[in-house]
Amino acid sequence: MDAVRLDKWLWAARFFKTRALAVKACELGRVKLRYLPAKPARDVKVGDNLVITNEGGTFGVDVLALSEVRGPAAVAQTLYRETEASIAARKKEEEERKSMPWADAVAAGRPTKRDRRDINRLRGR
User: Fold this and answer.
1) Are the C-beta atoms of 52 and 38 separated by less than 8 Å?
2) pLDDT at 105 (0 to 100)
3) CA pair distance 67, 14, nearest whole angstrom
4) Which end of the chain is more exposed for a tag (fewer CB within 10 A), N or C?
5) How far is the C-alpha of 124 from the C-alpha of 56, rounded, in Å?
6) Burial of 104 by CB count in 10 Å (0-12 exposed, 13-18 middle, 19+ buried)?
7) What does each C-alpha distance from 51 to 10, 69, 98, 102 come to in angstroms?
């Protein structure tokens, strides 16, 4: 096997939970093959460079192996190698996100009755 569909490879490498999500990401331009937006049916070959944006962040990866089937996570990690620049950029983003003071407030959940009253007061109701 010298080539695999891009959406199948993304699914097999566990960047997306389903092939449908991989297809949607390709259609939205969140997956770039050789730094150009790629369609889901584009063939991926060993040695290709991919830039993938998903909820985990932006990954720059080099394709090391091909697979059409989704296997264990340990096997999926052998299909690609993340570039050093990508690792450094994701660590920097993570540190910036942790340093934001409002990040804890967002994860608090539903507003309390007191919070709702404050929100209504700010909105002028």
Assistant:
1) no
2) 61
3) 11
4) C
5) 37
6) exposed
7) 11, 21, 24, 29
Which token pair is 48? 């290709």
The token duo for 31 is 């997956």
Residues forming a β-bridge with 109: none
> What pLDDT does 104 receive?
60
**2: closest CA among 48, 51, 39, 35?**
48
* Distance of alpha carbon 125 from alpha carbon 123, whole angstroms: 6
Tokens of 12: 């097999």
Question: Which residues of the chain, if any, have pLDDT below 70?
Answer: 103-108
Q: How far apart are CA 111 and CA 88, in angstroms?
A: 35
Question: What's the helix, strand, coil split of the chain in %, to 5?
Answer: 45, 20, 35
* Domains of the chain, each with CATH number or no CATH: 1-82 (3.10.290.10), 84-125 (no CATH)
Per-residue confidence (pLDDT) for residue 56, from 0 to 100: 86
Q: How many helices (H) and strands (E) does the chain have?
A: 6, 7
